[in-house]
Specification:
Largest sheet: 8 strands, mixed
Strand content: 15-25%
Number of strands: 8
Strand order of the largest sheet: 1-2-4-3-5-6-7-8
Structural class: alpha/beta
Number of helices: 10
Amino acid sequence: MPYYPAHDGLRLFYDVAGDGPPLVVLPGGPGMDVRYLGDLGGLSATRRLILADARAGGRSEVPDDRTTVSFTAQARDLEALREHLGLDRLDVLAHSAGTLTAQEYAVTHPHRIRRLILVTPIGRAGRDIDPAEVARIRASRSSEPWYPQAAAAAGPFAQALMVPFHWHRWTPERRTEYVPGHANRLPWFRDAFYAGHAHPGPVLAPVLVLAGASDGMIGTAPARVVAAAHPHTRFELLTESGHRPWVEQPELFRKLVEDFLT
């Protein structure tokens, strides 16, 4: 199993899939097992994906110091991975909450980022969700049979019941593909992750921001905030996708990413 050492000695896991120029991949969640990303809709056919589990997530070790899992602190782990791989600069793709770590790294290590891809980002320096927009997206699904239960979800099973809101279409195939076991199970992780305080300033490298028009989890507002924050950004709205566009529109997803990287 490939591990690399963090600055504090923690053993962090990464996997490698595919062949081609390297692309470092950070999962969302926060703290989800990176395996939920699969091969990113077939992107491994042209890219060597370096799929990195965050500390205290997936197959990485859990630190004693919980403050080191904040998204700002985890930028140091990305630098340690770059050094371990022996790369001068990185192309980085991050999903959802993982985009906070990616942006922090790009701001604090500007000469180490070549290109940055932010897929359904959660925000610029935290959660930039517009509750009214999310409510509108969810209400647009009110005619679907699962809606009443999902809309009324509360309590310990709320997240599982609300999963259909993450997708443009909630089909039997999506039910099969969705693996709830990838979520981070540490009760303190989420709060510790978002406790970071981002360094101000724009990302100077080229940035691709991808949003899903049907994303009933976070909406499109966070992606628009992120796109406005960085001067060399290309924003793309995938009209038949929710929170995981590499699953729902894999061909378009791959084309947008490849065109941007090349």
